[in-house]
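B., you asked whether I could sanity-check this one before it goes into the benchmark set. Here's the sequence:
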Amino acid sequence: MLTDTSSSPYARLTSLPANAVTLDGDGPLARLHRRALDVTVPSMGAIMFDPEVAHAYENFLVAAGEATGEHDGPPFMDGDLYKYLEAATATVAENGNAELRGIIDRSAAAIARAQRDDGYLHTKTQIARGHGSDVEPLAVGTDFETYNFGHLMTLACIHHRVTGEETLLAVARRIAGYLAVQSEQGPERLAECNVCPSHYMGVVELYRVTGDKQYLELAGKLLELHGGKGEAGTDDNQDVLPVRDQRRAVGHSVRANYLYAGMADYAVETGDETVVSALDSIWDDLVSSKLYVTGGCGALYDGASPDADQDYYSITKVHQSYGRPYQLPQTTAYNESCASLGLVFWAWRMLVRTGDARYADEIERVLYNALPAMIGDDGATYFYVNPLRQVRNLTYPLRRPGDPKDVAPPPSEERLRQEYMQACFCCPPNIARVSAELPYYVYGQGEDELWIHQYAAGEVSTSFAGVPVTVRQETDFPVSGDVRLHVSADRPVQGRLRIRVPGWADGIEIDGVPAEAVDRGYVVIDREWHTDTVDVRLPLRPRVLTAHHFVEEATNQVCVTRGPVVYCVESADLPDGVGLENLGVPQTTKISETPGTGLFAGHALLSASAAVIATPPQNHLYAELDPAPARPLDIQLVPYALWANRGPGEMSVWLPLIRTFEEAVA
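And here's what the prediction gave me:
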């Protein structure tokens, strides 16, 4: 359902089709997915279709001449509606909601009526021209036209696969036709309008759905147009170097990850080794020096970057951006939600091409940490920015897109999720669509084989050699690491299960025996199946991690993980008078586990022995060390995924490491 690479010549696997996968139980992925269908998609729809709030749907009626008024909202609001409709389509595929199906049908018709005869569709420009403006299409790079085009094409492909209907697919084909004409007649203008380039993914997926090779050729042309601008380009938009010559993750992290995902799509279809080489180098740069332990992407609110091979005097401004290697601040980490979701899109396509579990590892990192932290337990409030530390009394504001310009932002410790972000609502519909499509990140299928990428209770339907096969996962992961796979085939048939060995695991056991034969991070069981079970045991244990010594903000600090789950400390669990600055974790800390309940159901909670360190009054930049001895304190560690659901307060993933002189020299 995510990407149909069943006919792609360089793909190792493909997504399962709609309705082939279900999640159940109380695990974190199932809870997040269920809440998306029941709460997130309906509540977001009320926002998107309210002309007094988002005005997203209303813009199409105005553009079509069926309503009066001005364009309201940011220029990328069209794309945000398309993302929402993709989430709604995935929801209807699973639960058949008739009311939601009607909303999708009504929206598809309105979108089609708003499209110009030449295929162009961008409500901001069309409404302005309808009111007498002489603004031309593709005249302003930050009008996000191609971003909107790409999300429409992706929506159209998924909508067609789910429903078989052609309305949106026809719109998408006309948009692709418009892009093809512009790539020939106005390539310079098109090259300036590649901000947040979702259209590379969209055009390639359109090729997969239609089989029309002109769309794959168009994708190649668009990628050629993206880079190679030299000093006229910017790191922020990844267009200084040709895409095939790029080797580092630079600039705006959403733009970057969308570009890299589109390049990966192109590589899956063409096998272009120059694109593959670029992607491999960029990936290694990211995961080795620029990725947060939570899956957060894009450390900087704002910065300057000479890193795309320009000289010192060609430094350019960047925002919401990757920084230098190991530049990973905590309190001021930006980590836009869309960037981590862009990483999932990119990693999925790398996984599809290579069958290498290290890409599934990074998807898992986001699904268990960054993604659930973006959305409140209420299913209807969202973070745009995702720090790894939140402190009280910060003396400078950290901007949020949802804060009105004429209103001071809240105190630092009161930065909670928001229901609607007037200036930029791009992240919530992205969160909604990934959450609604979660089941399809759990499995993949190849020729006579099923890939198990993630561990989550539920069921998948596939086939080996044309014989229907059902595989059911029984597990309470990540509370425990025990997974039982029930395999049921209509009749005995040969086939393969590929079971991922997570990167955080010291190996896994299959039916009580340590797995030894591993292919690119997957245990392969090739045998005849009929009615069988396979028991998998994952070695879940708390691990205390340290960062590379180049990560200044984490020097002599530790964080605690268990399996894929990253933990944090919240002030809600600290006694009065103890702040984050007072805590230290001994090297010899003892960590115990208990199953979570309520908000934390489906997770394990951790308790660790820590120390309270006296600190001088915080009214000077520097002060003499307080000589008072540390005192012991047991602290509770909770999943970062669920932080900020108990009211305002402080939070930190990383904590200072302490040890006595005796421990240091022992």
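One thing to flag: The longest helix spans residues 28-48. Otherwise nothing jumped out at me.
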